[in-house]
Design brief:
48% helix, DNA-binding, NreC/VraR/RcsB-like_REC, 10 helices, Arc Repressor Mutant, subunit A, globular, 2 domains, Tscrpt_reg_LuxR_C, alpha/beta, five-stranded parallel β-sheet, transcription
Length: 222
Amino acid sequence: MSVTVLIADDQAMVRAGFAALLDAQEGIRVVGQASDGAQAVSLAARLEPDVVLMDVRMPEVDGIEATRRILGSGFPAARVPRILMLTTFDLDDYVYDALQAGASGFLLKDALPEELVQAVRVIAAGDALLSPSVTRRMITQFAAQKPRASRAAGRLRDLTEREREVLVLIGRGLSNAEIAATLFIAEQTVKTHVGKVLAKVGARDRIHAVILAYDSGLVETA
């Protein structure tokens, strides 16, 4: 089955370029294009894409607000779109807010074509699009600037001691392989723990588990 994509960007040439590139890939199909956030919300509801490429900065309704509206609009669990934010700078002021709104990853607008294609595939597969090093650098910076969520710690109550250890290491930006080496367990076991952690804390993906680790105080900023 094809991965369906909705592109939201206020620049027509950008939309056209992304659409041409993605439509040329096996297993990817662009189903719609939106010129602003409001249109993106409307088209997402009607087309139910697997992935939305969402520009952060758009007139009227920006990408962050559009992301909130899309993810809060009551999609069936199996059809909730993954939001891939398009940014001009890798540490855009809106990054943290976009993550809190539910975005699953970020891509620079000057990324290579193959990086865009890979990003869509990664997001569609349910993975978060940030390497451990980028996660560590970006989330640490933005978490330090935001007040802690008082209710975040309560979401950790059902974790076992081992699962809390895994969440701490996720929060520090370690990959599954690095977590396995740190805890002296098999990487497949780590994957199992990660899945349980995400389910128990209600995190959409790994990025949102990182945010929770910081917001709850489980991981301290440097």
